[in-house]
Amino acid sequence: MMSIKQEQGGDILTLDPQIYKFPGRSKSSVWNHFGFQKGSDGELDKSRAVCKICRQGIRYSGNTTNLHCHLTKHRRENTGLFEDLDESWMHASPDFKFKYVEAVVQSTVEDIKAAGNIQSTSSTTDDNKSGQRSKHQQLNDTIVNFFIEHLLPLSVVESTSFYSMIAVADPMYVVPDKEYLFGNLIHQCYNETKKSIASEISGNEVITVAEVWESITGEKFVSISVQLINTLWQMKTFLLKTVSLNSVINDDVFLTLFKATCEEWEIKSSTTLLNDGSKIIQKAITSLHLINMPSCTTGLLTAGENLMKNQTVTKSVIEQVILIIGQILQDKSPAELYGEMFEIIKDYKEIEAKTFSWTAFTSVILCILENKQSFQTKNMDSKLNITDERWQEFSDMEAVLSPIQKAYKLLSDNSSVISSMILPILRKLEMALATKKSDSEFMKVLKKATWSSVSTPFNSTAVRKFLLISSLLDPRYKDLQFVETTEKSQARELLGTVATEMYRERNGKNGAYDGEIIVVEESGDVIRIEPMEKKQKLDHSENRNGTDDWLADVVCKDKPVDKGSDKEEKVLVEIDHYISTQQVSTPPLQWWSSRENLYPTLSRLARRYLCMNNFSVSENNTVKNAKLSQETVDKLLFLHHNYYGR
């Protein structure tokens, strides 16, 4: 039998039996919010109507007056705001893990009760009404946070099971319907978060990011975000906009969307658009004169996938590896025979060549090579016809894929990877994939094809220039030992140009600097600052003779052009002293944060060129698995990424 607790003329049901609809036909809309439960005899107990919202039992004798009073007394003043509860999501989405949702909600409720924020029962006395409202507001916030964090369909909030779980925390709490949850509570949270982010973006150097991604349901979206380094020298990424691609959207529509997003957020200083290679993004890059910065992670993924799809080169090797996996899994005691190797390959029982990811293949083939002697001992060589030539091909493929996998893992697992690291990574891969005279023809083909896939996206002159400046502004790589001598000189010249442009833009002048120049000398941790000696003023009243004028072109420096020199003198002094400092292993943001006043222009430039990181909207499995409508996806994803300080 269920246990029932009396509460002000009604009963609070402390268990969660199913609530059944009013039997037969009824004209009253109040039955949208009430139902009956079965008694111990298995029949509906029609003497007590149960509120679907708060689980309270209300005595029922044939009329609905008590039920209307209950809604009026304990719910919103306008009961017409309530709509039918839609639980169709439970049937439409059979793969939705409701047990997981229930566990998380229950855990959330228990945490709240343990913290003393919410009582399990409520009193309606005047003394604690204000306190109760405060507790209800806290529960409002908890529900909002719960939906934002787990990206749940809003219909969950109107399910009977959700009502009953929240009732454990506070039976008197009014669970908001999905319209109120999204239109009021989530919307308020969105506006507050948006205001906070806008203040960080305002006047800052940012890089815009556009990404097309696909959810687990097959729906495609395009997301626009920004990356920046704030005034505290912290790396930040903010998701600004997400739009479904299921509606008609092409490059013109995206261009309009991108421009509108930049205007809405008052983004004026972005020069670079990091994108995943999607075609709909290209027109925005061209029209707005942005640098099309490819994603290094996407490039590595493409290189690995292209290698696996190369039917003429790698097909037979991949098929051989799959045969080996099948043979191992058919053995009677594979775990005892193959040990660690079995643990790695046991997940590939149903594998096919077309679905074998290059990262998984690399791990498996390395494991096979490490157990070569064991294969030979068990006569697996002859059983599977693994020739010496095939063993060499295994080794060649592993030698090509391993550096790609290491670079991919570095970029995927390390949140501190920034744009200044791309050129060093590319140089490392170039060295690993360089062909040698001793390489077999098979390996030469693999290396050339792989390096072409990795390097081609970064061959653009504009991209190369951006990466050169980025690496030069990183105190860990400023010596540029990973590029040719000509590019080192080019990087210095490029830095002078962009620094001068920034200086003149921020100071509103287009001429040579005529103020005080700060000289910085660093020795270890000691920094000395002193003004540069001022030039002696020329006394125009002094007499001059013609000989002075005739020799001027060989004894005097060129006079600055009146309209302003090509580079600003103060900027060049900053660059000279920065270049003269020792290359260190200090993280770049930490290094620049302590020298912002010493290098006012270069530090600002560092914010522009070092803020690009390896952010991806779709990397989060919660995002991929979300089942969100086109109307809610923008705000919920915005809050999911930004509200929790991603």
UniProtKB/TrEMBL annotation:
One of its GO terms (cellular component) is nucleus. Keywords: DNA-binding, Metal-binding, Nucleus, Transcription, Transcription regulation, Zinc, Zinc-finger. Its main location: nucleus. SUPFAM superfamilies: beta-beta-alpha zinc fingers, Hermes dimerisation domain, Ribonuclease H-like. It comes from the Eukaryota. The keyword Metal-binding applies. One of its GO terms (molecular function) is protein dimerization activity. This is BED-type domain-containing protein.
